[in-house]
Amino acid sequence: MKKILLVLTAVILSISVLASCSADTSGNLSKDNAVTEDYNATTGMDGVIFDKDESAVESPTTTTETDVTDGRKIIKNAQMTVETKTFDNFLATLEADIAKLKGYIEQKEISTAGNDYRSAEIVVRIPAEKLGEFMSKVSENGNVTYQNESAVDVTSSYNDIERHIKSLETEQERLIEIMKKADTLADILAIEERLTQIRYELDGYEQRLSSYDEQIAYSTVTLSVDEVEVVTVGEDDGFFTQVKEGFMGSVKAIAWIFRTLALVILSGSPFFILIGGSVAAIIGIIKLAQKKRKNK
């Protein structure tokens, strides 16, 4: 029993040393985080290495594997707003491109506005190394009016979790060896209780690592697709293209006005007939009264 107590004491001292080292590491991380927070407060960024907004863009900048520093854990995401005159064809081409690049659609929602034009909100997961290629294909198939790319460095958090896992696994191995030599039920129950806690903590850390790995391997692209009759003209488009699209836009606007007026008149015709009949009846009564007065 004394030997076991001595071994337990040695394990506790070892854990204390590891905890002290972890505390020092956490302290350093806290300092780094404090510096990062000060920087974020100044720049408005939170762990973002790269963040780019573009409006009425013609084609996205291609992102390659060389954009990521070796050994760093980078999560890359993007958002795009796209206009298309051929809504169904655009979606079909988009799904084909996603399949070719070994990606998948995580979420898709299609809605119809009051003007009968459709829109879609699509969340796509694409292998990170093919993000730039995918964005280029989207730009080729539709008119991109907005684009944003971001990259978040999670290396520090990732490495910290790995250190916690290693420390817990070391403690777990030592406790298992001690339990083999325990000769009282109380000692065995105490060790099993701690082992249960360790397994629970390990599961949580491993799930976080798995989540990081999935986000690092597959970038998230949020697409907003709008069906239009006339695409937005950018400054980079040619003069005649701008004139053509502007003219078509004016024609469509005039057609929409006449269509709206026709709908209002036709849908309100019963009301207009009732008012017209009432006015005609009142005018007839007034004329009849005036005629009677003249006869008198």
Characterization of this structure:
The structure is a single chain. The chain has 296 residues and is α+β, with helices and mostly antiparallel strands. The protein has two domains: 48-232, no CATH class; 239-295. 62% of the residues lie in helices and 20% in strands. It has seven helices and six strands; from the N terminus they run αββαββαβααβαα. It has helices at residues 2-43, 87-100, 131-141, 155-181, 185-217, 239-267, 269-295; strands at residues 48-55, 74-84, 104-112, 118-127, 143-153, 218-227. Strands 1-5-2-6-4-3 form a six-stranded mixed beta sheet. Strand 3 and strand 4 form a beta hairpin. Helix 1 runs antiparallel to helix 4 (155-181) and helix 2 runs antiparallel to helix 3. The radius of gyration is 35 Å and the shape is elongated. The protein starts with a helix and ends with a helix. Residues 1-8, 15-50 and 54-68 have low confidence and may be disordered.
